[in-house]
Amino acid sequence: MRLVVFGLPLLVVILNWLWPLPLPLGLKVIAATLIIIAALYHYWSRLSSGSIFAPEFPRPVIILFNWAFGAIAFLMLFQIALDIGALLVALVTWQPVHIPVAARAAVGGLAGVLSAIGVANALRVPPVRDVTVTIPGLSPAFDGYRLVQLTDMHISRLFPARWARAVVERTNAARVDMIVVTGDFIDGSVAMRRADVAPLVGLYAPDGVLAIPGNHEYFFDYGDWMQHLSELGFHMLLNRHVVISRGRAGLVIAGVTDRSALAHGQAGPDLAAALAGIPVGVPVVLLDHQPGDAREAAAQGVALQLSGHTHGGMIVGLDRLVARGNSGFVSGRYDVGGMVLYVSNGTGLWPGFALRLGRPSEITRFTLRAG
Prior knowledge:
Helix content: 40-55%
Radius of gyration: 23 Å
Oligomer: single chain
Structural class: alpha/beta
Order of helices and strands: HHHHHEEHEHEHHEEEHEHEHEEE
Shape: elongated
Distance between the termini: 50 Å
Mean pLDDT: 94
Strand content: 15-25%
Largest sheet: 6 strands, mixed
Strand order of the largest sheet: 1-12-2-3-4-5
Number of helices: 12
């Protein structure tokens, strides 16, 4: 399967697009070699750090790899479309199959431009996106309560300390009551990312900064990361909850571990444990990195679930495939059995495929309203 996934783009781009171009043979060989090097980006990433999730190259190199990788993917799709179109024209006109050089040049340029736009969109510091949620049973004391969700920051060589610092500044400027982080803080070990995550200590909200792990925390020294994030001021809700009080009124913020935990010898998500002992009649906001279990949360009476993980699908069209792997949930707001599920597009992105087209990153500010 891996051979098909990575081999097909190379065959299409090199044999169907590059080789028919009227270029000197030596130039074609050089271009084909560069295409193969770019297509093996994840292999080089593994060599650099031991993990495909943490490319330890200088940031400009990672940006260039992502651009080239994206351009190859787009070019494969465009060339296949050209091939099909040329074949249909040939069948209708009963002429030999012919693709003009100008058409090949056009799709090559379009693929490069689209990939560049996608990488630029992925690298930006996200704007604040406002979402209002009406919660039945919410006390008037919490009407207008505001919290910010960060998720999928993937702090790494691609999203380094200066990016993290800008995210902290924008988040604090949102002036909310609480900050929550729904996992995938990093790509890399504590030793690799210590300086890059350091700005996160500056996150501040009156009711605290609460968080849960995502699947990527389990890929890199989970225990070390839970300790280090706690030292940075994050209240980690590992199948636990806290109650926020306003006089006699309350609001429960609960969190669960990630689905991938069991495969790494850690405690899996346990919603029952997270909700054990909550006050009767108090609305629950659940933090769950992956949205796939939202229906179970709704059945347990959760009012609002905040998730990430999908990156919004990253690219329009691709998001439909991502949705299929996440119980149909991929981006934005859903009504799930009377519960509101919000799936953030993510604040950052995995550095192994950092492109966004039509699915922008976000820092999400929620305003809760009494229903």
